[in-house]
Design a protein that fits this description.
Mean pLDDT: 97
Distance between the termini: 35 Å
Family: Belongs to the NAD(P)-dependent epimerase/dehydratase family.
GO molecular function: UDP-glucose 4-epimerase activity
Enzyme class: isomerase
Low-confidence stretches: none
Cofactor: NAD(+)
Largest sheet: 7 strands, parallel
Strand order of the largest sheet: 3-2-1-4-5-6-11
Order of helices and strands: EHEHEHEHHEHEEHEEEHEEHEHH
Number of strands: 13
Strand content: 15-25%
Pfam family, one: GDP_Man_Dehyd
Radius of gyration: 19 Å
């Protein structure tokens, strides 16, 4: 069965391609390489022994999207990762985020709606909840006004999919709201590969640990949390990737209860930024240099998932720990700096 993965050379996308191939799916990747590297294809192939199909394509170009689906008209499922994803950058460049994250989604849905098998997994985010009133966060928590244009693109994206599902009974969609993916494949063949200065915590930690960065800036030490730093639900990327395969199988086997479903993907446990640093120190044997600085615009105080629905309805749960994820991220960092 042929599956399209957009943004399939990115961090979460590449790990999901591996898990799909491990389950016997034939994978086609679309990526424009704007925030990824073609070498990731080799990493995927090294792990699975199978080289996925690859099309270098920018989803903002509607004509190219139409032509792609004319060529690959036997696709049975689409997992849509391709999007810009940095909160801070989105605050500075909102129109770029709306064009890249919303326009491309519309083009994708227009073409998926022409397929015989219309199964669509959307890469969403816990940012749709904003600063939730209650923790842990369930799927029924109210959607708050977004704290950033990036978060808003995920809210709008979900609304577009929901509206489309209402008028197209043949379309089955699942929105997966990730919490904070970290780590790397245990083989260290693929991992998080930020271009330029990392926007996410863990690559900044590992780059500081290996000496690329002088020290880590911890944004805000005065939040209403036990140690004053933000709390997040850090989930190992391999656990997250496996959830996408389970979600796709749910649609292919027609186990979905409606044609639009939403699941939170997290561990159910919140960890502070300082706890994440302590985890790195434990697995690396280092003592990371960091400095607490002012808060960053768009950041919320705390977010961690209620995973009951994902565990009981989707049939998925995490298996790997924060230390597992940090150790794999550190192994990956050491590999890419030493090759």
């Amino acid at each position: 069965m042929k599956v399209l993965v957009t943004g399939g050379l990115g961090f979460i996308g590449s790990h999901t391609v591996v898990e799909l191939q491990n389950k016997g799916f034939e994978v086609v990747i679309i990526d424009n390489l704007s925030n990824s590297s073609i070498e990731v294809l080799d990493g995927i192939t090294a792990i699975t022994g199978v080289k996925p199909h690859f099309e270098k394509l920018d989803l903002k170009e509607k004509v190219d999207v139409v032509q792609f689906f004319e060529k690959y008209n036997d696709i049975v499922g689409v997992i849509h990762f391709a999007a810009s994803k940095a909160v801070g950058e989105s605050v500075k460049e909102p129109l770029m985020y709306y064009e890249n994250n919303i326009g491309t989604l519309v083009y994708m849905l227009q073409e998926v709606s022409k397929l015989d098998k219309q199964n669509f997994i959307f890469s969403s985010s816990c940012t749709v909840y904003g600063q939730a009133d209650e923790l842990p966060i369930t799927e029924n928590a109210p959607i708050k006004p977004a704290e950033s244009p990036y978060g808003n693109t995920k809210q709008i994206g979900e609304e577009i999919i929901r509206d489309t599902c209402k008028v197209n009974d043949n379309l089955s969609c699942i929105a997966l709201r990730y919490f904070n993916p970290i780590g790397a494949h245990p083989s260290a063949e693929i991992g998080e590969l930020p271009i330029g200065v990392p926007q996410n915590l863990v690559p900044y930690i590992t780059q500081t640990g290996i000496g690329m960065r002088e020290q880590l800036s911890v944004f805000g030490g005065d939040y209403e949390t036990p140690d004053g730093t933000c709390i997040r639900d850090y989930i190992h990327v391999v656990d997250l990737a496996k959830a996408h395969v389970i979600a796709l199988e749910r649609l292919l086997e027609e186990k979905n209860l409606s044609n639009y479903e939403v699941f939170n993907l997290g561990t159910g446990k919140g960890s502070s930024v300082l706890e994440a640093i302590e985890s790195f120190d434990r697995v690396s044997g280092k003592s990371l240099k960091y400095q607490i600085v002012g808060r960053r615009e768009g950041d919320i105080t705390a977010a961690y998932a209620d995973t009951t629905k994902a565990n009981d309805v989707l049939g998925w749960k995490t298996e790997l720990t924060l230390d597992d994820a940090m150790a794999s991220a550190w192994k990956w960092e050491q590999k890419i700096r030493n090759t």
